[in-house]
Fold:
Amino acid sequence: MRTAYKCRAYPAPEQAAVLNRTFGCVRMVWNQVLAWRTERYRADKTRTSYAESDRYLTRLKKAEDLAFLNEVSSVPLQQALRHQSAAFANFFAGRAGHPRFKSRDGRRSASCTRSAFRMRDGELFLAKMPGALRLVWSWPGVDLTTLDPTSVTVSRDADGRWYVSLAVDTDDPVPLARTGERVGVDLGIKDFAVTSDGERFANPRHLQRKQRNLARYQRRMARKCKGGANRKKAARKVAAAHGKVRRAREDFLHKTTTRLCRRYDVIVIEDLNVTGMVRNRRLATHISDCGWGAFRTMLEYKAARWGRRLVVIDRWFPSSKTCSHCGHLLSRLDLGTRHWTCPDCGTRHDRDVNAAQNILAEGLSVPACGADVRRTGKPRPRSAAKQETPRSDPGRTRGRRP
Ligand SMILES: [Zn+2]
Structure:
């Protein structure tokens, strides 16, 4: 299994200068080659292989105005092209969007394979960089001095923090012992997640506070002149606030997904069409902040790592409106209704727990061996969309400006 350990790095000024120059070259090469191969594809549908892009890089390095590309290690530049080839492979396979140009302001990174770094007694040396890079190791269970990374990625976030990520090949993890427990998870906006056992994962409050700070810094930045020094300072504060929100959210998602995977053998979630829902303006900020996409990704890899089964069910399944006790289907259930009583069997329901129980039952009806976890059989009516989707308000949801 491949895994990676990420920790903070604190480069000395002259090291930071080398790394910044490398980042600039990586970005330049990425963008130049991306433009070139996009143009080739547009002209006559030619797809560019890694080897071809590498030859193009050699041509770039010979150009007079790009001679500075020779001043940095060539390995990160080639790695960037390998990543770009992988990004295009994903794009052509329909797994990802079209690779984008890298902007000056975002996260910057450079990757090295074994030929361009050396680890000795837990110290990291990079090609063309003076001295060892100072790391603060934050993995108490892992001995840095015995680590044998296959590649190293140095990155700098928009808020100026430096990181090193060490990719290593490790033994496959031992699956966790079976617990005999199964769970359905309903994702929502009021609570981040509610389980069929009645457990609630509330959206953390400190996250909301950090989000308000972020919004305030963004407003402040918007008032400064473009291109000015004050704008730059304000942008740094926005980036720092962004980083805080992102790290807090990641932390919350990691804890939640780890807890679910430790506790349950089978986890059932709904396939929320996150991008489709984010298109709705009113809910967009809420949903983007929730991180449902990241939640699913983390569950997927943690379930695979620990031998758990993750079932993703059809997103049009009317989980909220169906009575989990008798199967009665309500014709409507308003978003504000948190509790309801089934008119058929008289069971009193908590809206979210009932939905989670339905999700669990639906997930368990999927055969365990099937690679396709989507529900087969008769399609359910599309009008029975998940209730957390706001009632359609076509004027506002799409196209027209408010
Ligand atoms: Zn009922």
Q: What stands out?
A: The chain has two domains: 2-169, 182-202+260-397. The first strand starts at residue 2 and ends at 9. The chain has ten helices and 15 strands. Residues 323, 325-326, 328, 342, 344-345, 347 surround zinc ion (CB under 6 Å).
